[in-house]
Amino acid sequence: MSAPSHLSHELAAFMQQRPNLLREYGAGKFALFIGGMFQGAFADRVEALKKGYTQGGDGHFLVRKISEKDELVHLASPITSVR
């Protein structure tokens, strides 16, 4: 499954930086990418999403779990607001 075209830049940046992220932050944290730039690693997916929504500009950002292998995540519904 490929990423939507508006996330391809963020996904490519994540894939390129994944080895460094694993070394620096370890597996299990959540990385935030906006505009292809790493914005930070978070212990909790919700915190990464909140940061993405507050700093995401046009709303396009990527939150991925830092791990050696890709994990498929299913979301029941999109988050429409974060307070």
Give a short summary of the structure.
Helix content is 35%, strand content 18%. The chain starts with 7 loop residues before the first helix and ends in an 18-residue tail after the last strand. The chain contains two helices and three strands; from the N terminus they run H-E-E-H-E.
Topology, element by element:
Blueprint: H1 8-25, E1 30-34, E2 37-42, H2 45-55, E3 62-65
Antiparallel strand pairs: 1-2, 1-3
Describe what you observe in this structure.
The chain is α+β, with helices and mostly antiparallel strands. The chain has one domain (5-65). The protein is 35% helix and 18% strand. Strands 2-1-3 form a three-stranded antiparallel beta sheet. The radius of gyration is 12 Å and the shape is globular. The mean pLDDT is 85.
What is the end-to-end distance? 31 Å
H and E order: HEEHE
Radius of gyration: 12 Å
Secondary structure tally, helices: 2
- Low-confidence runs: none
Q: In the residues, how many domains can be counted?
A: 1
Strand order of the largest sheet: 2-1-3
Overall morphology = globular
SS-derived structural category: alpha+beta
Helix amount, in percent?
25-40%
Mean pLDDT: 85
The fraction of residues assigned to DSSP E strands is 15-25%
- What does the oligomeric state look like here? single chain
| Largest sheet, strands/sense/barrel | 3 strands, antiparallel
> How many strand segments?
3
